Automatic annotation (TrEMBL):
<feature type="transmembrane region" description="Helical">
    <location>
        <begin position="119"/>
        <end position="138"/>
    </location>
</feature>
<dbReference type="InterPro" id="IPR008253">
    <property type="entry name" value="Marvel"/>
</dbReference>
<dbReference type="GO" id="GO:0016020">
    <property type="term" value="C:membrane"/>
</dbReference>
<feature type="transmembrane region" description="Helical">
    <location>
        <begin position="31"/>
        <end position="49"/>
    </location>
</feature>
<protein>
    <submittedName>
        <fullName>CKLF3 protein</fullName>
    </submittedName>
</protein>
<feature type="domain" description="MARVEL">
    <location>
        <begin position="23"/>
        <end position="142"/>
    </location>
</feature>
<keyword id="KW-0472">Membrane</keyword>
<dbReference type="InterPro" id="IPR050578">
    <property type="entry name" value="MARVEL-CKLF_proteins"/>
</dbReference>
<keyword id="KW-1133">Transmembrane helix</keyword>
<feature type="transmembrane region" description="Helical">
    <location>
        <begin position="85"/>
        <end position="107"/>
    </location>
</feature>
<keyword id="KW-0812">Transmembrane</keyword>
<dbReference type="Pfam" id="PF01284">
    <property type="entry name" value="MARVEL"/>
</dbReference>
Length: 159
């Protein structure tokens, strides 16, 4: 008679696609997950609205946040040392916060349909989330620059 397999071992291939729990519990993992979810919601709202011309920015930010989420979760930042990941992440967050703030103001003030208003409100929330992310990343960059060595900050090695 065969022993039944444990519940976690039933589908090891599917389990490898999910990010580790420690990354999902980290501040960086939660910020990247929130950024990608908000960007996707904003993208859907812009598709359904009269302000469909703004849909490219949330789509690009969704794809970039999703890429960085899985890159940090699978520790690609430790494998590819040629790229300075915190600086890339900082520049992405700064530009995303500025772009979301600008298009949210335009969507709320120029368009009268509900989907545009919802996209604008979610855009303001996304601006805050991206601003928090670039503040945290900026502090990591400052601590790295004060150290004066060429290794990435410790906060991004483990995340």
């Amino acid at each position: 008679m065969e022993e039944p397999e444990p519940a976690g071992a039933a589908h090891p291939g599917l389990r490898s696609l999910l990010p580790p729990r420690e990354f999902l519990g980290s501040r960086k993992g939660q910020l990247l997950l929130a950024e990608s979810v908000l960007s996707f919601i904003i993208f859907i709202c812009y598709i359904a609205s009269l302000a469909a011309s703004f849909m490219m920015a949330p789509l690009l930010e969704f794809l970039l946040a999703l890429f960085l989420f899985f890159a940090y979760a699978s520790k690609l930042n430790e494998k590819f040392k040629g790229l300075y990941w915190p600086l890339m992440d900082f520049l992405r967050c700064v530009t995303a916060a500025i772009i979301y703030f600008a298009i949210s103001i335009a969507a709320v003030s120029k368009y009268n349909d509900g989907a545009s208003k919802a996209a604008g409100v979610f855009g303001f929330v996304a601006t805050i989330v991206f601003a928090i992310d670039f503040y945290v990343t900026f502090n990591d960059l400052l601590s790295f620059l004060k150290q004066g060595n060429s290794d990435p900050p410790e906060g991004h090695k483990s995340e």
